Amino acid sequence: MVKIEVCIGSACYVKGSNQVVTILQSLVKENQWEEKVEIKGSFCMQSCQGGHGLGIRINGRQLLGVGLHNVEEVLKQEISEALS
Ligand code: FES
Asked: Is the CB of 12 under 6 A from ligand 1?
């Protein structure tokens, strides 16, 4: 099981974290990952303060430099790698 945590803190919300959840849900559906990927919300994980982009963790590892412009691509690749 791949566990994805998406920050639901206010700074990430402003940057579009709710859209990240929608994108993630579409990716899971498209790739039939329903049984393999778990999506959870998380409180602030300090990405906003470090200028690291949106707060997203995959299996406990924080992703850096992710924004709405690249989130779909990055998550698809990260999840595929985690499942392989
Ligand atoms: S509000 Fe999301 S990392 Fe801080």
From this structure: yes
